[in-house]
Amino acid sequence: MVVEKAQPAGPREKLLTYGAKELSDAELLAIFLRTGKRGVYVVTLAEQLLGHFGSLRRLLSATLEELGAVGGIGVAKYAQLSAIAELGRRYAASWMQDEQPLLNPDMTREFLMSQLSDEQREIFMVIFLDNQHRVIKNSQLFSGTLNHVEVHPREIVREAIKVNAAAVILAHNHPSGHAEPSKADKMITERIINCCQFMNIRVLDHLVIGRGECVSFAERGWI
């Protein structure tokens, strides 16, 4: 007689048996939520949340009020979800810091989108690299309003000299979600390039981050 192998009882058991990659977004989310709500199994609650917000990214960037509108989501679960999102951002930052020379544009794009795509105001970020294009540090140097951030090229150069950077990658977000660079974006990029040239610091790229999209100045041939 052939005895069929019993299936894991839940997401945690499935993870331990098959590995985290085999879990759906809802199953992974259920592990962090830990419990459902009255009459609703935790995986079902996770599926409802994902369905309501449309994606994992939108869910993890939701406010307490937005989550509360779903029903059954209080401060504790909001704290859990916020912690997951922040842990993901910090993991990405740590991974970038520990990686080998930054030669893969996709790696840069994914990292910057994880850091900037959900910001509600414009943030200007700089990745500082050594002469072998290894990451020295990344900094959110300037922050602004919903549609404007004031950038000071000399501050970028000053920070680059402080950490002995040979090159930089620039990035900022558009909270509107549309990543197409503006005339002002092009002008500040030129100013930064000109300022960096005096200290023999290369500007490798400037990436504009929207919601789920990214525009690279280098890929457009503007740098």
From TrEMBL:
<keyword id="KW-0645">Protease</keyword>
<dbReference type="Pfam" id="PF04002">
    <property type="entry name" value="RadC"/>
</dbReference>
<dbReference type="GO" id="GO:0046872">
    <property type="term" value="F:metal ion binding"/>
</dbReference>
<keyword id="KW-0479">Metal-binding</keyword>
<dbReference type="Pfam" id="PF20582">
    <property type="entry name" value="UPF0758_N"/>
</dbReference>
<dbReference type="InterPro" id="IPR010994">
    <property type="entry name" value="RuvA_2-like"/>
</dbReference>
<dbReference type="GO" id="GO:0006508">
    <property type="term" value="P:proteolysis"/>
</dbReference>
<dbReference type="InterPro" id="IPR001405">
    <property type="entry name" value="UPF0758"/>
</dbReference>
<dbReference type="InterPro" id="IPR025657">
    <property type="entry name" value="RadC_JAB"/>
</dbReference>
<dbReference type="GO" id="GO:0008237">
    <property type="term" value="F:metallopeptidase activity"/>
</dbReference>
<dbReference type="InterPro" id="IPR020891">
    <property type="entry name" value="UPF0758_CS"/>
</dbReference>
<dbReference type="InterPro" id="IPR037518">
    <property type="entry name" value="MPN"/>
</dbReference>
<protein>
    <recommendedName>
        <fullName>UPF0758 protein ACH50_20745</fullName>
    </recommendedName>
</protein>
<keyword id="KW-0378">Hydrolase</keyword>
<keyword id="KW-0862">Zinc</keyword>
<feature type="domain" description="MPN">
    <location>
        <begin position="101"/>
        <end position="223"/>
    </location>
</feature>
<keyword id="KW-0482">Metalloprotease</keyword>
<dbReference type="InterPro" id="IPR022820">
    <property type="entry name" value="UPF0758_YicR"/>
</dbReference>
<dbReference type="InterPro" id="IPR046778">
    <property type="entry name" value="UPF0758_N"/>
</dbReference>
<comment type="similarity">
    <text>Belongs to the UPF0758 family. YicR subfamily.</text>
</comment>
